[in-house]
TrEMBL record:
The keyword DNA repair does not apply. Belongs to the 6-phosphogluconate dehydrogenase family. Residues 162-296 form the 6-phosphogluconate dehydrogenase C-terminal domain. Keywords: Gluconate utilization, Oxidoreductase. The keyword Secreted does not apply. Pfam families: 6PGD (PF00393), NAD_binding_2 (PF03446). PANTHER family: 6-PHOSPHOGLUCONATE DEHYDROGENASE (PTHR11811). This is Decarboxylating 6-phosphogluconate dehydrogenase. It comes from the Bacteria. It comes from Rhodococcus pseudokoreensis.
Length: 305
């Protein structure tokens, strides 16, 4: 089997390698790396024998839209596009319609596995027609973890279902990470626990909170027991926001995921306007003292010495 893969970043490059290990012929293209097999999208399409399958692994938003638009003009009827980035599910409908108008098939595929997917395999959540999914199944089987197909792959539904499933997956991920992080901070705050990394590692087996994410936290703490070399500033990919938006639209309470998302927003504030307002209000109604920002900063610096 032969496919083209556009986007050779951390995920795309490793996916290429895993597919090649399975015997799949992969032509990779990325304008930003030196490991491209071809010089352009047009060259990629020309090098693939029809009917073609092209897998897209580029950042969500404009890069994905531009790539899909280009492919809609370059590919031929009977070809198939698999969009494996972290696009919003609502965009899949537009991508599919644009391609369908030219007789080109479309599958949206949520991919989970990160940098570990090369060796461990990727969890795949796909949306699309049964016909298109069956056609691409050898690729999905090559990429997913070993074992029963249903434990690493799902045909979740029609177009958009794959990315919707991945969106919810990432929302859950936000909540899990936040819970582990808060537990770590509480352990660090008490004088009773003398070896925080050891406590967290002890949770790795036999406990109800064990998970791969916990294993990764153990790994991070072995590299830096106090995480002193890491900033607390935390980005969000957008999927946590979309999960909360969908929860509001469907009137589904998601307090944990929402709190985890807002915690990431808080991590990016050098100072908190809302907490300044609270301090000011306490002073107004109760006469409670307030601290000048520069004085508070001096206290933080002194404590760090």
């Amino acid at each position: 089997m032969q496919i083209g893969l556009i986007g050779l970043g951390k995920m795309g490059f490793n996916m290429c390698e895993r597919l090649r290990r399975s015997g799949t012929e992969v032509l990779g293209y990325d304008p930003h790396v030196n490991s491209s097999d071809v010089s352009s999208i047009d060259a990629l399409v020309e090098a693939l024998p029809p009917p073609r399958i092209v897998w897209v692994m580029v950042p969500a938003g404009v890069p994905t839209q531009e790539t899909i638009t280009h492919l809609s003009q370059a590919l031929s009827p009977g070809d198939l596009v698999i969009e494996g980035g972290n696009s919003r599910f609502s965009e899949d409908i537009h991508h599919a319609k644009a391609l369908d108008a030219r007789g080109i098939g479309y599958i949206d595929c949520g991919v989970s596995g990160g940098i570990w997917g090369l060796e461990n395999g990727y969890a795949l959540m796909v949306g699309g027609s049964e016909e298109h999914v069956d056609r691409a199944m050898p690729l999905f089987d090559a990429l997913r973890p070993e074992g029963p197909r249903g434990e690493g792959f799902v045909h979740a539904g029609p177009i958009g279902a794959g990315h919707y499933s991945k969106m919810v997956h990432n929302g859950i991920e936000y909540g899990l990470m936040q819970a582990y992080a808060e537990g770590f901070e509480l352990l660090e705050a008490t004088e009773l626990v003398e070896n925080v990394p050891a406590v967290i590692e002890a949770w790795s087996r036999g406990t109800v909170v064990r998970s791969w994410l916990l294993d990764l936290l153990v790994r991070a703490l072995k590299d830096d027991p106090e995480l002193s070399g890491i900033s607390g500033w935390t980005q969000d990919s957008g999927e946590g926001r979309w999960t909360v938006e969908e929860a509001i639209r469907n009137a589904v309470p998601v307090p944990v995921i929402s709190a985890a998302l807002f915690a990431r927003f808080a991590s990016r504030q050098e100072t908190s306007p809302s907490m300044k307002a609270i301090s000011a209000l306490r002073n107004q109604f109760g006469g409670h003292s307030t601290s000048r920002a520069d004085a508070a900063l001096d206290q933080v610096k002194a404590a760090a010495r």
